[in-house]
Structures are given as C-alpha cells and as structure tokens.
Amino acid sequence: MIQRIQSLFLLIAVGFLSLLYFFPLATIQLRFGNIPVEINGFVQGAELSDFSATKIWFAAFTIVLSAVILLLAGVVLSYKNRRRQLRLCTIAFFLNTAFILLLFLGLEQVTSLVDPSTKDIPISYQWVFYMPLASLILINMAMRRIRKDEALVRESDRLR
C-alpha cells in the first residue's frame, strides 16, 4: 500500500488538506481590526463569531473538505482494486476542484456579509489557503501513476 508512489502522493494530499483545520485561511481587514478566518468559522474571540449568515458557508467548507479527505483516505485503502481507485480518485479530484471554487467564492461572500457598507474589503490569504491547489496537483499525479500501473498490469497479462 505505502510502497506505491501514488499512495504516497495521496497521503501527502490528505496531510495538506488536513492543515486547513489547524491554521487560519485568511485575514479579513476591517475598520475595527483584523479578523482571522478558519475553515469552521471566525477565530475565537472575534466580535463576529455569532454572525449567523456566515455559518452556512463555514458549514459547507467543513463538509466538503471532510468529504474530500475521507474520499482520499478511501482511495489509499483501495489499493488492490486499481479501477475503483482511479474512479474514486477522479471523484476526489472534481470534489477538490469544487472545494477550491467554494473557498474563493465563499470567502468573498463572507466578507460582503460581514461588512455590507464596504464594497472592497481586503482579504489577506494565508499560506494554508493554497494547500487545496497543491493537493489537486498531487491527486492528478496519483491518477497518472494509477493509470500507468493499470497499463503495466494489462500489458503483463497480455504477454502471458
């Protein structure tokens, strides 16, 4: 399982996505101060932590991220069935792409909900915000290696 390079790519992708739970995604710069934003909401102690309209976005972030992580873990554990692994990897790729779009659009919506009087609220994206992009590249690399393994097995079966 771990000896295959695609399993290593997928485990690193899971690690990158797991970092989103531990570090702030961005910082919203408002008139009365900077507010760090985590994947499950505003950081504790922020004045806007009970802002109910944004809770829907943060719930969507958390649900989709958890689904991608669980799906990638399932891909790693289904190493004996390469076709199923490739299908699950493709689903994880598209779900991760949807998560990236949800993050970009959602953070823009959250900032407009937080301070509707200001049109352009500056958002300072942190380094962890780009981890889903890195995991997308790793998922793509794993998909290529799974296809390569499948072609190698077909070729060896044909030679028998």
Which features would summarize this protein structure in a list?
single chain; 160 residues; alpha+beta; Butyryl-CoA Dehydrogenase, subunit A, domain 3; 4-stranded antiparallel β-sheet; 4 helices; elongated
Describe this structure in words.
The chain is α+β, with helices and mostly antiparallel strands and 160 residues long. It has four helices and four strands, in the order H-E-E-E-H-H-E-H. A four-stranded antiparallel β-sheet has the order 3-2-1-4. Strand 2 (33-38) and strand 3 form a beta hairpin. Helix 1 (5-18) packs antiparallel against helix 2. The longest helix has 33 residues, at 82-114. The radius of gyration is 19 Å and the shape is elongated. The relative contact order is 0.20. The model has no long low-confidence stretch (mean pLDDT 82).
**What is the CATH architecture descriptor?**
Up-down Bundle
H-E string:
HEEEHHEH
Tally of DSSP β-strands:
4
Structural classification: alpha+beta
Which shape, going by the Cα principal axes?
Answer: elongated
Instruction: Tell me, rounded to a whole number, the average pLDDT.
Output: 82
**Strand order, sheet with most strands:** 3-2-1-4
Largest sheet geometry: 4 strands, antiparallel
- Count of runs of 4 or more consecutive helical residues: 4
Q: What gyration radius follows from the Cα positions, in whole Å?
A: 19 Å
Question: At the third CATH level, what is the topology name?
Answer: Butyryl-CoA Dehydrogenase, subunit A, domain 3
The share of residues in helices is 55-70%
Strand content: 5-15%
The residue ranges in which pLDDT falls below 50 over 5 or more consecutive positions are none
Rounded to the nearest angstrom, the distance between the terminal CA atoms is 25 Å
Number of domains: 1
Assigned CATH class:
Mainly Alpha
